[in-house]
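SUBJECT: protein chain
CONTENTS: sequence, structure tokens:
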Amino acid sequence: MKAPSRIRTFLYGAVTVVIAVAALEIVASWMLLLHYRSSRLANFEAHDPSYLATVNLARRLGRLVGLAEPVAGGEQTEPSPFFRADRLLGYSAAPGVYTHSYGRRNAMTGQWEYHRNKVTIESDGTRWTGAPRPGKPTVHIFGDSWVFGTGVPDELTFAARLREALPDWNVRLSALGGWALTQAHLNFDQLKEVRPDDIVVLGYADYYDVRHVVAPSRLREIEAWLRTVGQPIPPFLLPKASLGPHGKLAFSYLDQRCAALGDYCRQPDPSPSEMAAVTAGLVDHFAEASAAKVYLLHFAGSPDNPALAKLSPKIGRISALRRDFDSVVQDDIMGFDGHPGPFWHYAISRKLLAAIAWQRP
């Protein structure tokens, strides 16, 4: 009779452990949700990349009491600085060849280890994708750090992979960490020539909406992230898009430092409908300003984003959300950084190749 009793005790113990772990995960999820709401943190995946709320909460508490190092030792650049003030875009990357490094302590040895990759910025501010192909049409790609390929070497960005797969095309990558469609709009209008047979690909995620209007939550997010990595807040003036009475886009500039804006950062964000209208206005501008075919690459967020319903029918939509792939492609930079890694970039390049009717020039 002892064996059944031992089995029963073991099962009770296992069930108790499972219930305790599940309860802990629920409580941790609730606490993080409250934190996200109170801080209006939009792009929380960049701060808490784990799928387990208990892991993310433990890391945050460890940093708060000084018992744990940051996940990454901060992004270091050689030569430095990488970013520079830009009167049109708020900030941009200075041309040159850089080594970006990400550091962390090894959990087993306690020693610092680093992930390094090469980043090449061309003279026009774009990221290197390959040698020019004179006389060939161009794919113009715009976006933020995901599109830029933060943490990914030059050759492994989806833009470089796209160029490799399209020998009759040039690929121009105009993206940078923290940018959105405001910088895309301003960069696009500076191009001297966009031909009718060119293609424009606009990277877009739902969290762009707060960037377009430089919402208070966006500035708080910038402040929180730079505090986490131990960096000061540069006095960059960010472009802020708005719609006039007749739906015409207008731009103004706002200091990204909350301390320089009085109580602005304590105010609520603009309404979701207002931000969706601004986003749609920015996207539609590309179709209005050029005869080139324009595609919106929606890579993060909800398929029901209201901005999508407001777009001009001239805009081709390419959904590249997690549900749009038949396998998990959302890798990261080997745990050194929360941005997508080379598997995601490869998957995005294949998605673009399949979604666009590439005509041979």
Notes: Residues 2-39 form the longest helix (38 residues). The chain has a mean pLDDT of 89. The domain at 77-355 is CATH 3.40.50.1110 (Rossmann fold).
